[in-house]
Structure formats: structure tokens, C-alpha cells
Amino acid sequence: MNTKDKIIHTSILLFNENGERAITTNHIASNLGMSPGNLYYHFKNKEDIIRHIFALYRDHLNTHFKPINKDDDAFNHLTAYLDSLFELMWRYHFFYDNLGDILSRDADLKQAYIDFQLELLEQVRKIILGLRDSEMIAIDEQDVIDLAHTLKLTVSFWTPYIKARRPSGTLAEQDIYHGILKVLTLFRAYSTDKSIDKMNLLREKYTELAQQALGPVDLSGLKFVQSRGN
């Protein structure tokens, strides 16, 4: 990784471990063994770093959550969606934890977030329609947008919900798998006779993964995507 990507990568690690509010650019620079001036050569301030992290978050969603085409294997798509969702929720959980505060400090980021959420809602709606057209789920047209909202709400607020209920305020890998199971439950409620066995296999998969995950893991093991800016 080049210096700019190292700064972003380290910032994500520190934000997730300590909470975004507790970390300053001085903490990030010190962790990297560089001077604050060197960090400011690449980023104007912490908000600038967060904007670049948001760009990675946005790119992840755009890349991994494409609508299902008519001839696609819908079950494989759903499995890939859930696997990618795990990586998203684990890598960027600091963003969900402190979303309101982060957006309140940066008007440009808030507008970018609002605009993207509208795009994402439509993206999720198309995924639901793709699962319906592939007979993985049976859902009335008027319920599609409500399911899309509920899926987004579950993903966005699962990690702060867990951390708020825990005295330590920490998050473990198994917590994310439990969140994926909640997302899967929403889909299973609409499953068809054709898909229920496959849905149950997915439930078994993520239940087993949750049981295997004994605690927090090193985020540096996850694949890192080079920053592309805003």
C-alpha cells in the first residue's frame, strides 16, 4: 500500500477499535510512525480521511450488490450478498456506531450519504425483485419497498444495537454473523417451497460461523481495496 492507503487502512483499524470520536489525526500519525505534517500532506483533516473511507464503503456496495439478471443463479447471488455484507458490516462498523455525529460535522459528506442512500434503496429493491423473479421469495409488489427499508435498517443499526447492550461496548466477529442471520430471517419470511431448503442451508452456514467465531479478530486480515477518493 502507498502512504495514502496506509493512512486510510490504519484509520479504519483505530476507529473500529477505539471509536471514531476518540481518535485524532495525531493518533493516526503516531500509530504509523509519521509526523502530523506528513499526514496532512495527504489529508487535510480527519473529516477528509472519513470521506475517503466513505468512498470505499460506497464502492463496496456498488461492486458487490448488483441486481440479479434473469439467467443468474439467484441462490449463489444471495450467498454472495450475505458474505459481502459480513465484510461490510465488520470493516466499517465504526461508521454505523457514530453515524449521526459524523454526518453532523461534515455537510458535504452528509449530502453524499443522503444521495447514496437513495441509490442504495433502489439497488436493494432491484435485488428483492430479482429474488422474487427467480422464485427464491414470494412477495407482493407493495411490500417490496418496505422490505428494502427494513433490510437497510437492520444492517445500519445492528452493530450499535449490540454495542449499546454490552457493558464493554466491544464488538465481536460472531456479532456480525448474528446480524447476517437477522438479515437472512427477513428473506426467509418470504421464501418459497422451491427455496426454503436452500435458505435453511444458509442459516446453518452462518449459525456455524457464528459458533466458530470466539471473539474479535484482526481487521488487517480482510481484503483492503485501494482508495479511489470521493
Automatic annotation (TrEMBL):
Pfam families reported in the protein's UniProt record: TetR, TetR_N
UniProt DNA-binding residue ranges: 24-43
This protein's UniProt keywords: DNA-binding
GO molecular function: DNA binding
Domain of life: Bacteria
Alphabetical list of InterPro entries matching this protein: Homeodomain-like_sf, HTH-type_Tx_Regulator, HTH_TetR, TetR
Name under which the protein is recorded: HTH tetR-type domain-containing protein
Species of the source: Pseudoalteromonas arctica A 37-1-2
